[in-house]
Structure formats: structure tokens, C-alpha cells
């Protein structure tokens, strides 16, 4: 049984999963003076980390190298090296498989961690998931594998990650962090850990509330993006410039929040997280969340709409998609990052290829190894545009030359409202 709070030690931290979420958490804990062991089953990723080569925008290779040189950060795939941690943070993927949550990574991590739990340790799940995962799924795995009792011998909590890759204003340290525990003592320990490197922690009364908070935040974005996407698809027929209407509505100082249309939603959050909630509600009650189902439907069909618009634009120029040279600008799911997971641009690319277009892709941020097989790359420069019958701007990276696109003689379909010119058509 763990007693006095003054005895809490948080110096040795294990972070399971060294991806977009786990690596920044590891660096935050190193900055706070902790000794961190980052564990990842991806041996190639671990090799890169060990070489001081960061693969994510929010952690520079310099910061990673400094952490390695300090001796307070190590990366490994070997669970035997985990040692006696005070805190263990789980940041593994939580994907969807055929519309259902796949929690096998969380389960496997739990089973791997359990034998290493020492009395007094704190385990924190950060992976996005549906309410009940921490107390119903993870807790029994940890207890069974450790022979210890949660809340008595070790502590357990949930703290959702709010990281926004590429965001220059808000990072891990200055974004308030929601914290929770399976009981009061667990909450206190989880909070104390994040207070080491996050400016503000926001405690909630249960792990389920914290799990729901994350899903609520992402469902809110997902539904609002679907709303403007649908408004965009009808505005054109009504003779309305949706972008101007959004800007005008944005002048209202209350009761309106600006969201913009685009080719769909991507990344590891919006296409997945709301469906976790939808799945759980459908499994555990007779209820439904019709807003999520509708938003999924609308956002999932935006690539079709973009392709149809491009097809119509080419048609007006007496060109068929079949055989047309199309320059795709941006494949990443959001601007200024290279992450193409779940990117709607991939669907646009596949559809154009299926229609017989000769497609080249300008994507300055995505490494070759991450690119889909067989994709031909091009530059978003004058030569790239001169080659193309049409260009479609899907991801508005700041480093694209929007003056060049605006003045180009090539037809440009701009799904992000970054260009204006005689050959430019907005979504
Ligand atoms: N990327 C984001 O912007 C973001 C933001 C908020 C929340 N999240 C959530 O955080 C979680 C992690 O996302 P991510 O983007 O960091 O994923 P990621 O794929 O970048 O990283 C996860 C890492 O976990 C490793 N891993 C998988 N199983 C493991 C195991 N059993 N032991 C050790 N390592 C293991 C993988 O090899 C991978 O390197 C997900 O639930 C995601 O929804 C992501």
C-alpha cells in the first residue's frame, strides 16, 4: 500500500510508443529533469531516434540529440531494458479496423508493461479511445500481469493528447492538459507528473470523462468541417462564393467559429476518433450519434466532389481526365507537415489514376519511404505547371508559390482558397 504523497518519485519515466505523441512527451519529461526510456516495437524508428534523427516536425533533431547526449533519454525495442519506472505513459496507435476500434496495441502494451510494474508506479494511457478503455480494458490487464492492485499498489490514469503537429503557437507545454485517474490518489499522481512540464493541467473526475473529452473535441471539429464542406458543395450552384460567406460570418464576435472546407479530413484523429464514439454507443446502448454518421458520410465524399469538379473543369477546356496530365499539390493531410496517414489527397490521387490521368505529386514534406508506391514526384514550379493540363491544390503548404499558381496559364483547382487568377477555380 502506498502512503504519503511526499514520497512520490517521478524521476524515471517509460514512454511506450515513440511516435507523434510519444516522442514529444518523452522530450517534455527529459526537459523536466526525468530520465526517460522510450520504447517502440518499430526497430527502424528506434535506430533513427538513437542516431538523433527526429522524424516529426515538433521535435527537432537538435533537441533529440541533446536529450541523448544528456544520458537522460534512450530509445529501445527491448522490454528487458525498461527497468523500474516511476511513471509509464502509453502512446500507442488506436486505429479503426472495418469501422471498429482496434485496441490490440493498447492491450499488447499493457501485457508488456505489467510484469515491470513496481509498487508505487503510475501508469497513464494517452492514446485516444472510447470511454471505459482505461478502467475496463487496461486495468484488468495490468492487474493480471503484475499481481498488483490498481489504486492500492499502483496508480492508473488517462490523459488525452492534444498535440497539433506543425502548430507554431501551441505545443505540449502551453496547451492545457486534461488529467484523470481511476481514484483521487491516481489523479493526484497523474497531475503531478504533467505539472512537471505542462503549464496547466485540467483535472476531471474520472478516466471516462477524460476519454470522452478528447472524443468530444475531435467530434466537434469533424462535424463543423462537414458542415462547411456541405455548404461549400451547394454554394456554387446558388451562385455564392462560400469563402467570402465564411469570412463575413467570421466577423461575428460571438456565436460563430470559423471552419473552412477542403478535400476531406485526414490524419490520425478526425477520420477515426468520432467513429470510436459512434461504435461504442451503438455497441453498448440502443442509441446512435447521427451527427457523426452524417459527418463521416459528407467528409468521406469530399474527394469524390473534388475529382468531379476537376473533371468538369477539364471538360470545359475540352479535355478528358483520361490521359490528362494532373499535378497534385500536397498529399499530406494538413499543411506544413509530411504525415499522409488517412489523407483525403490519397483518395483523390487514386481516383484520378483510376480515371486514367497521368498524375504527378508535389509534396515537399513527405519522405520517399512514406510515399505511396509508384507515385511520380514533381516540383510545384513553373516547369511542373507548364507540364500539367491541370493542377489541384489539396494541401496548402506555406512553401508553395501562390503567386506563381495564381498567374499560371494552367488550370488550377484550389481547394484551400490560397490562389486567385484567371485560370483558378475555388472549391
Ligand atoms: N498524431 C496526432 O496528432 C495525435 C494527436 C492526439 C492524439 N493522438 C493519439 O495518440 C495515439 C498515438 O498516435 P501517434 O500519432 O503518436 O501514433 P504513431 O504511429 O506516430 O506512434 C505510435 C508508436 O507506437 C509504436 N507501438 C505500437 N505498439 C507498440 C507496443 N506494443 N510497444 C511499443 N511501441 C508500440 C509504433 O511502432 C509507433 O511508433 C493514438 O491513439 C492517436 O489517436 C495522436
Q: What is the number of E strands?
A: 16
Number of domains: 3
Query: In percent, how much strand structure appears in the residues?
Result: 5-15%
Number of helices: 14
Strand order of the largest sheet: 3-2-1-4-7-8-9-10
Categorize the overall geometry.
globular
| Low-pLDDT sequence parts | 1-7
> What compounds sit in this structure?
nicotinamide-adenine-dinucleotide
SSE string, helix = H, strand = E? EHEHHEEEEHEHEEHEHHHHHEHEEHEHEE
| Overall helicity | 25-40%
Helical/strand content category = alpha/beta
- What does the largest sheet look like? 8 strands, mixed
CA-to-CA gap between the ends?
A: 61 Å
CATH homologous superfamily descriptor of the largest domain: NAD(P)-binding Rossmann-like Domain
Average pLDDT, rounded to a whole number, is 95
Q: In CATH, what is the class of the largest domain?
A: Alpha Beta
Write structural notes for this entry.
The chain is α/β, with parallel strands linked by helices and 427 residues long. It has three domains: 6-205, NAD(P)-binding Rossmann-like Domain (Rossmann fold, 3-Layer(aba) Sandwich); 215-293, Orthogonal Bundle (N-(1-d-carboxylethyl)-l-norvaline Dehydrogenase, domain 2); 301-426, NAD(P)-binding Rossmann-like Domain (Rossmann fold, 3-Layer(aba) Sandwich), CATH 3.40.50. Helix content is 38%, strand content 14%. The protein has helices at residues 22-31, 43-50, 61-69, 104-113, 133-146, 184-195, 207-235, 242-249, 273-284, 290-300, 302-316, 344-354, 382-387, 402-407, and strands spanning 12-16, 35-39, 73-76, 87-90, 96-97, 100-101, 122-125, 155-158, 177-181, 201-203, 325-329, 358-362, 376-377, 390-393, 411-414, 424-426. The strands form three sheets. Strands 3-2-1-4-7-8-9-10 form an eight-stranded mixed sheet, with helices on both faces. Helix 1 (22-31) links the parallel strand 1 and strand 2. The radius of gyration is 24 Å and the shape is globular. Bound molecules: nicotinamide-adenine-dinucleotide (NAD). Nicotinamide-adenine-dinucleotide binds next to helix 4. The site of nicotinamide-adenine-dinucleotide has 27 residues, from helix 4.
Amino acid at each position: 500500500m502506498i502512503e504519503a504523497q511526499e514520497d512520490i518519485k517521478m524521476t524515471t519515466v517509460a514512454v511506450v510508443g515513440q511516435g507523434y505523441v510519444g516522442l514529444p512527451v518523452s522530450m517534455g519529461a527529459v526537459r523536466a529533469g526525468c530520465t526517460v526510456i522510450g520504447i517502440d516495437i518499430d526497430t527502424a524508428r528506434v535506430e533513427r531516434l538513437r542516431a538523433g534523427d527526429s522524424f516529426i516536425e515538433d521535435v527537432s533533431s537538435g533537441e533529440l540529440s541533446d536529450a541523448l547526449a544528456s544520458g537522460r533519454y534512450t530509445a529501445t525495442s527491448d522490454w528487458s531494458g525498461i527497468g523500474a519506472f516511476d511513471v509509464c505513459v502509453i502512446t500507442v496507435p488506436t486505429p479503426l479496423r472495418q469501422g471498429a476500434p482496434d485496441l490490440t496495441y493498447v492491450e499488447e502494451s499493457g501485457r508488456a508493461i505489467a510484469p515491470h510494474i513496481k509498487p508505487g508506479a503510475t501508469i497513464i494511457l494517452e492514446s485516444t479511445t472510447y470511454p471505459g478503455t482505461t478502467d475496463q480494458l487496461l486495468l484488468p490487464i495490468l492487474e493480471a500481469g503484475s499481481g498488483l492492485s490498481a489504486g492500492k499498489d499502483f496508480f492508473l490514469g488517462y490523459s488525452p493528447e492534444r498535440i497539433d503537429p506543425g502548430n507554431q503557437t501551441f505545443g505540449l507545454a502551453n496547451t492545457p492538459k486534461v488529467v484523470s485517474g481511476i481514484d483521487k490518489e491516481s489523479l493526484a499522481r497523474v497531475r503531478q507528473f504533467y505539472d512537471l512540464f505542462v503549464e496547466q493541467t485540467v483535472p476531471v473526475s474520472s478516466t471516462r470523462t477524460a476519454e470522452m473529452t478528447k472524443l468530444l473535441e475531435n467530434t466537434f471539429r469533424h462535424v463543423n468541417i462537414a458542415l462547411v464542406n456541405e455548404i461549400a458543395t451547394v454554394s456554387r450552384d446558388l451562385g455564392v462564393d462560400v469563402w467570402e460567406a465564411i469570412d463575413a460570418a467570421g466577423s461575428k464576435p460571438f456565436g460563430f467559429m470559423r471552419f473552412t472546407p477542403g478535400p476531406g479530413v485526414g490524419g490520425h484523429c478526425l477520420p477515426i476518433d468520432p467513429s470510436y464514439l459512434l461504435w461504442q454507443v451503438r455497441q453498448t446502448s440502443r442509441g446512435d450519434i447521427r451527427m457523426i454518421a452524417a459527418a463521416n458520410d459528407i467528409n468521406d465524399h469530399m474527394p469524390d466532389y473534388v475529382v468531379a469538379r476537376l473533371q468538369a473543369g477539364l471538360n470545359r477546356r475540352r479535355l478528358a481526365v483520361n490521359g490528362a496530365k494532373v499535378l497534385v499539390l500536397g498529399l499530406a493531410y494538413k499543411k506544413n507537415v509530411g504525415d499522409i496517414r488517412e489523407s483525403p489527397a490519397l483518395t483523390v490521387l487514386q481516383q484520378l489514376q483510376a480515371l486514367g490521368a497521368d498524375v504527378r505529386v508535389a509534396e515537399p514534406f513527405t519522405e520517399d519511404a512514406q510515399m505511396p508506391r509508384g507515385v511520380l514526384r514533381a516540383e510545384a514550379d513553373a516547369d511542373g505547371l507548364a507540364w500539367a493540363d491541370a493542377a489541384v491544390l489539396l494541401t496548402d503548404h506555406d512553401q508553395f508559390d501562390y503567386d506563381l499558381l495564381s498567374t499560371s496559364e494552367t488550370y488550377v483547382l484550389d481547394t484551400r482558397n490560397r490562389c486567385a487568377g484567371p485560370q483558378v477555380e475555388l472549391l
